[in-house]
Amino acid sequence: MTEEITYANLEFNKSYALENVPKPDAPEEKGRPTSSPTWRLAALTFLTLCLALLVGLLALGIVFFQVSSDFQKQIGNLKQNQETLQTSSSKRLQDMKDNLCLKGEEKNKNNGPNCTLCPANWQWMGGDTCFYISREKRSWKQSRKFCSLQNSTLLMLQDMEKLNHVPPRQTRDYYWFGLSCKSEGNGWHWEDGSAFSAQRTDWDRGCGYNQCASLYDRKMYKDDCSQEHLWICEKAAVQLR
Question: Rounded to whole angstroms, how far apart are CA atoms 179 and 226?
Fold first, then answer.
């Protein structure tokens, strides 16, 4: 009886001891992080930014290609307009040439087509020279100044064939031209400084102070430079080929 009681007590104590042993906490699964609302929000924000960046890059690419296409079209239009302008300019220049070119010599010294141009109010009478024949009278010095302002000189008759063109035969006036004697004994000189050397039986080579030469009916006369006469300027014609 005593042994049974003792065994029962041992079994009870053992059972009580096992029941009161604290159970260890259940271990968490390895490699599986705990979920957190903050982490999920950060991941969602990052994903949103990536999508926005992708959409922005796509839109930028579309705009770039659109601008590039428009730029190429503009370049093409500019080239076309340039060609049109060049064609139009060439045609206008040709029309101006046809309207402005003086009739006369059809070929130049090089046997090519020739176009001779003279300024407004200037006359072309053949050759390569333009002439200005005044309608008012001035002194020789004033006439010379006028010609100089027109980038020309008073008529120089080293080539006497010019007398076949100027002055107009229908007028009976004196015309100053580019021959003068500035001091007694200095001799007659042309506008370019060259000495008068023509052999003329009807021309007195002696000259006095302030004497200038004039033309009347295709003949050369001496006169006081302060006298007022008409005058003739000459300049080289513009040659277009």
Answer: 14
Q: What's the token pair of residue 214?
A: 């004039």
Q: How many CB atoms lie within 10 A of CB 238?
A: 13
d(CA 204, CA 223): 12
- Which pLDDT tens digit goes with each residue over 148-162? 999 999 998 877 677
Kindly report the pTM of this predicted structure. Answer: 0.55
HEC profile of the chain:
CHHHHHHHHHHHHHHHHHHCCCCCCCCCCCCCCCCCHHHHHHHHHHHHHHHHHHHHHHHHHHHHHHHHHHHHHHHHHHHHHHHHHHHHHHHHHHHHHHHHCCCCCCECCCCCECEEECCCCCEECCCCEEEEECCCCECHHHHHHHHHHCCCEECCCCCHHHHHCCCCCCCCCCEEEEEEECCCCCCCEECCCCECCCCCCCCCCCCCCCEEEEEECCEEEEEECCCCEEEEEEEECEEEC
- Residue 240, both tokens: 């277009």
Q: What is the pLDDT of residues 81-114, one digit of tens each?
A: 888 888 877 777 666 656 656 554 444 444 445 6
